[in-house]
Amino acid sequence: MESENQNQPVIEIFGGSTLKGEVRISGAKNSALAIMAGTILCSDDCRLRNLPNLADITRMSQILSAIGVKIEQNGDILDFDPKNIGQSQAPYELVSQLRASFFVIGPLLARLGTTRVPLPGGCAIGARPVDLHVRGLQAMGADVLIEHGVVQASVKGNRKRLTGAKIYLDYPSVGATETIMMASTLADGETIIENAAQEPEIIDLANFCCSMGAKIMGAGTNTIVINGVERLHSTDYPILPDRVEAATFLVAGAITHSEISLYPVIPAHLASAIAKLREIGPKVILDASDRIRLIPSSLKGADIETLPYPGFPTDMQAQFMALLAMSEGSSMVTETVFENRLQHVAELQRMGANIRVKGNVAVVQGVPFLSGAPVMSTDLRASAALVVAGLAAEGKTTIQGLKHLDRGYDDIEGKLRKLGANLRRVNVPSELLSNPASLV
Ligand code: UD1
Asked: What atom of ligand 1 comes closest to residue 56's alpha carbon?
């Protein structure tokens, strides 16, 4: 519990600077978290490269260590020794802070035949149940009991191995696809996942598993076929670049009317964001196969509806809403993936945005300028939206609640400062935070 007189970190942004230069995009958080859980599947050592420096990654390392995986870190490289997993129970204090920690359920069940994983936590953007994960594991022969907030799963029989199954997902859930895909790599026989999620992070996880000897076909399409193998072997695997971080910087460039380059990126993974940016006005140019450049222009409103990949990502919705708040005309933003993911609206309104919300739809009427204000992060991508809004706003924006931002953005202040933004992280006494007027 934080006491009243403690200091809390905030980011102060002095808006109005034009950005210039190249930003280096880190490894993808969502790929890295699933792949880290996937190391449990391996019977040998594994090396992962290009890991982003994030609170979520540290937390996942702590969860894996608690299970018995030995981990050594050297910069953005992590070495995992999962040979002697001693503990099939993931610790509640850690799992409750990170939804992705639930990903350990599939690999633990596949390796040990039994596991206990507390129901997960994470951003408060909706109910986020795990029924699809559980039903998939049940279809593969697991007995699953959910009691006192803990999911207990076990496989019957001497060999304690899951059995391949045909699994149709009612919704193309990223997490459920990953859980079932990982669990089935060591199952007896063939597993077919229909209506699977098609996100690039699914392909990255499949490529990682295949690099250890798994047999997976169709990742990136809506039907994935996995043929179980006896064991998985050592690998050395680089995580793909983070498309959400890249999109956030594209928005930062667009909203400040700046020309910036991003490297490394996989442009195909940004197709929906790039298409939407072009509709709003700025150009995005391919300078090389892994480098893109944003050419700024005036901004005009556009409608956005979030959808599973290849549709427009829910993880980019908040940042684009900040951009639309300063784009001429009206825009409609419809959130279909999570039921409670418009919490940034109230904070953007504090900065002068003209947005009305009805249900899962936000109607944005562009304004010529935003004004800096004290604002509160409510979830990870909402905090990124406030950062980009602050870059364009007149005067000072003070962002509280940095634990969300730190979960998912690797050195965002350093990267923005290198582009010429005027911002800093400072510690502010808690009593000042309860009096917003003192932060202006
Ligand atoms: C992942 C991403 C997250 C992203 C989301 C959608 C990670 C660590 N996180 O989250 O950043 O916003 O994909 O692209 O990769 N659902 C169920 N039952 C389930 C599972 C999900 O009803 O068993 C629902 C969820 O409540 C939500 C929707 O399906 O409304 C999408 O969730 P899902 O695709 O599973 O997202 P996550 O894997 O949690």
From this structure: 8
Nearest to 124 by CA among 376, 411, 372, 375: 376
Burial 105-143 (b: 16+ CB within 10 A, else e): bbbbbbbbbbbbbbbbbbbebeebebebbbbbbebbbbe
Q: How far apart are CA 251 and CA 416, in angstroms?
A: 12
Q: Which residue has the CA at smallest separation from atom 34 of ligand 1?
A: 173
Please answer whether residues 161 and 130 qualify as being in contact, where contact means their C-beta atoms are separated by less than 8 angstroms: no
Each as own residue / partner, the long-range contacts of residues 277-285 (CB below 8 Å, 24 or more positions apart, any chain) are 277/250, 277/251, 280/254, 280/323, 280/324, 280/327, 281/254, 281/327, 282/250, 282/253, 282/254, 284/250
Ligand 1 pocket mutation, candidates 95, 174, 195, 316, criterion most atoms within 8 A of CB: 174
| 3 or 356: which leads in pLDDT | 356
| 123 is a catalytic site residue | yes
DSSP-derived secondary structure letter, 148: T
305-351: pLDDT as tens digits: 999 999 999 999 999 999 999 999 999 999 999 988 899 999 999 99
What pLDDT, on a 0 to 100 scale, did the predictor assign at position 88?
67
Which residues line ligand 1 at a C-beta cut-off of 6 Å?
A: 30, 33, 99-100, 126-133, 171, 173-176, 197, 201, 313-315, 337-338
CB 61 within 8 A of CB 54: no
